[in-house]
Design goal:
mainly beta; five-stranded antiparallel β-sheet
């Protein structure tokens, strides 16, 4: 595997350098993005910085007026965060567990992903962190639940704790203040594992529904659409009846979800397809309509057809144009609503953890950003909250942002960094 990794880095670096000369000079960002014409890539661009971590006192760079500190450290690939009503912070520690590579491209992709610790043996647990003295750093760590199957999303409704494993939603009994769950729990909904494996969860404002993001198996239905059945969608689970259904579809990999309070609409961050260029198509932030279809795999950003895919004109005609482009291959994963007054200098809007690209000639993402909202919609250009996760020469990743949420004090943000193995806390300086 080491030999393959070196060969991949060499070939990938050469391909990326060649494509860098033709890379667009702008990012496809905002409500009306300029999306370059698609350029089919015979060989996928593979470019991944080496996982370096945070050394010698290095920290992420904050926006003016903000400060950052480690709320928790020494984790094993932290991905997602859930804050309980009593202020305890839960962290899902997990990573992709790849199957045996079948093709040369599989070998190359896995070798690339291992360089930044994105795949490998998964911790498969949720840990609980408690900041009893309220100083912004946790003093105690407990194993909340372990021996799970790539756990990710979490949700609490009353005395029932829901966990999004890659193969479905499991529920456990929960007692307020408990530092660990007992029993194996009960599987409520089963999902197909593998591919885009994360299963984020969010509870409806009235507590009657749970929504789950289930990503596609492949890039563009490469193994046929039968293999994609039930995927590339947001599912809705009725808590009272246990009935589950697809709420919205055509979302290649919808990960973070958040409620916009003025309109009551659900929003999500979606990772788009590969192999068409550095900025084509962009990842995006969008409101989610019930029974809405967002194009995958037939088309993107509305009705822009992807002619690599066997077409369905009726589905293309149904495709909804997303609300806000987030740049090509930024891997925008984490998402939370930021109420005005939480951080100085930032009003109402969405905060997005951009994990960062691996499949473009000039790397993108590797930031925690803010998109302002007015009247229930994005209202202007994005701003960086945290940056500095990538070296200037793009060879080293100090960290990679993933999940983000409002801190227990309601005056801070918590963000998971799965390369730095840290939960960062952002607050007023």
């Amino acid at each position: 595997m080491e030999l393959i990794a070196k060969a991949t880095a060499l070939v990938g670096g050469t391909v990326a350098m060649m494509r860098r000369m033709g890379s667009p000079g702008h990012q496809a960002f905002g409500k009306n993005p300029e999306i370059p014409e698609a350029k089919k890539q015979g060989i996928m661009t593979l470019k991944m910085p080496v996982a370096e971590g945070w050394k010698d006192g290095r920290l992420p760079i904050c926006a003016p007026g903000l400060a950052v500190n480690a709320f928790a450290s020494g984790l094993d690939h932290p991905r997602w965060i859930e804050v309980l009503p009593n202020g305890d912070v839960l962290v899902a520690e997990s990573k992709e567990q790849p199957g045996p590579p079948k093709t040369l491209m599989d070998h190359a992709t896995q070798a690339t992903m291992r360089r930044v610790k994105a795949i490998g043996k998964s911790a498969n647990r949720v840990t609980l962190w408690r900041d009893a003295d309220g100083d912004g750093a946790a003093e105690t760590r407990e194993v909340f639940v372990e021996n799970q199957n790539q756990p990710f999303g979490m949700a609490l409704i009353g005395d029932r704790f829901y966990l999004g494993n890659t193969d479905g939603i499991r529920v456990f009994e929960y007692r307020e203040g408990a530092t660990a769950l007992s029993g194996a729990g009960e599987m409520l909904v089963e999902f197909k594992p593998h591919g885009h494996w994360t299963r984020s969860l969010i509870v409806s404002p009235d507590g009657t529904k749970i929504y789950a993001g289930v990503g596609s198996l492949s890039n563009i239905g490469d193994q046929g659409m039968e293999a994609e059945e039930g995927r590339a969608a947001i599912w809705e689970l009725d808590v009272a009846t246990g009935e589950a259904r697809i709420f919205a579809s055509g979302l290649r990999n919808a990960v973070g979800m958040a409620w916009e309070p003025e309109t009551g609409k659900l929003w999500t961050a979606v990772n788009e397809r590969d192999g068409l260029g550095d900025e084509t198509p962009p990842d995006y932030l969008t409101s989610v309509e019930e029974d809405g279809f967002y194009g995958w795999p037939y088309c993107y950003w509305g009705q822009t057809v992807d002619d690599r895919v066997p077409q369905d004109p009726e589905m293309v005609a149904r495709a909804i144009t997303p609300d806000y482009a987030l740049g090509g291959h930024t891997a925008s994963l984490g998402l939370c609503w930021l109420p005005e007054g939480t951080l100085p200098g930032f009003g109402n809007g969405m905060v997005i953890g951009q994990h960062g690209s691996w499949n473009r000639s000039i790397l993108s993402g590797y930031k925690l950003i803010f998109v302002p909202f007015e009247n229930g919609k994005p209202s202007g250009p994005s701003r960086d909250i945290l940056s500095g996760f990538l070296s200037e020469d793009e060879k080293l990743a100090y960290g990679r942002p993933v999940g983000v949420t409002i801190g227990p004090d309601r005056k801070s943000l918590l963000m998971a960094d799965d390369v730095g193995d840290v939960i960062w806390r952002v607050s007023a300086a």
